[in-house]
Amino acid sequence: MIALHDLKKVYRQAGRDIPALDGVTLAVPSDSVHAVVGQSGAGKSTLVRCIALLDRPTSGTVEIDGVELTAVRATELRKARRRLGVVFQNANLFDSRTIIGNVAYPLELAGVGRAQRTAKAKELLGLVGLAEAGGAFPAQLSGGQRQRVGIARALATDPDVLLCDEPTSALDPATTSEILDLIAALKARLGLAVVVITHEMTVVKRIADSVSLLEAGKVIESGPLEQAVARFGSRLSETLLALPATSGLPQAGITIEVLDQTGPAEVPALTSVGRQLGVDLPIVAGVVEHLGEATFGRYRAVVPSALDPGEVLTQLRQRGAQAELSQAVAGVAR
Ligand SMILES: Nc1ncnc2c1ncn2[C@@H]1O[C@H](COP(=O)(O)OP(=O)(O)OP(=O)(O)O)[C@@H](O)[C@H]1O
């Protein structure tokens, strides 16, 4: 378990204070993945540096399994860092070292003997599916394979926490899927608390158990993934269930927005309301995502002019869906 409590980082630049982190509190239990998302400048890199102890927070604490890392003396820092493995966007491998040499590097720093660290590196390479690649050099591997090496190296000191900083941003979609599957499998196998910093919503949907949205150094939304998505109209819900733009489509009637959560094989509320009222409610944009046990559907649909949209909203809500007139109709620019 990793816990951040009221973490603040203020940079001073040209006589001005820049609050890069403004009181971040988070707890990530073992055997779970927490994603932190946010736009450029939100404070994601600062958060990574403070968690990884590469930078000291101005105030607040970082705790792993009850041990306060932020309280350790400078001389103990290297040892404290072993509780935490870091995976970077680019694996940052040493080109002149073999793959085994790269994975064993943190153990070399920790003073572990050659035979023991080689054995550990081999074991870890097996774990990340690269048992045969130990004698190769980084230039001989693909980007995805290099990232696997980066993950193996992050696990060399048997950390409790894996911190992944944009782990798939440099990879193509198929390799991204493989790496995310690997992180999820390692989390379960090793009982890791995983923190993933990312700007990619596919990463969140694929592996996160919980998610936080960082903005201007503050966590403005946070919670278990399914709850965050179910919060109709929230930023996380709208970003994770992003609808394509529909401007320019002919729409004879009033547009409504619907967020529906269904179990397997359940009929979406919009379908059953249309059937009940004997009308078509054309969907002009929609997205369906399976997250954990739930299926979420977000739709923008047109209520024909002959029908009272209020009645449609009521019927949808009676079936458990969340529904509103779309903001464009309500007069708010989108
Ligand atoms: N060393 C520094 N000195 C001064 N200001 C800094 C420093 N590092 C970051 N900042 C400022 O802190 C804020 C957060 O920056 P940070 O790099 O953490 O954001 P980010 O979410 O990682 O953005 P990006 O995705 O673009 O890297 C920004 O306003 C940035 O300008």
Automatic annotation (TrEMBL):
Any GO MF annotation of the entry: ATP binding
* UniProt keywords, alphabetically: Amino-acid transport, ATP-binding, Cell membrane, Membrane, Nucleotide-binding, Translocase, Transport
Record PROSITE patterns = ABC_TRANSPORTER_1, ABC_TRANSPORTER_2
Residues spanning the membrane:
none
* One Pfam assignment: ABC_tran
Q: Which GO terms describe its biological process?
A: amino acid transport
Record-annotated ABC transporter domain positions:
2-241
The UniProt entry, under InterPro entries, shows: AAA+_ATPase, ABC_transporter-like_ATP-bd, ABC_transporter-like_CS, MetN_ABC_transporter-like, P-loop_NTPase
Mind telling me which SMART domains this protein's record contains?
Answer: AAA
Supply the name of the protein.
Answer: D-methionine transport system ATP-binding protein
Q: Give the source species.
A: Propionicimonas paludicola
What broad taxonomic lineage does this protein's source fall under?
Answer: Bacteria, Bacillati, Actinomycetota, Actinomycetes, Propionibacteriales
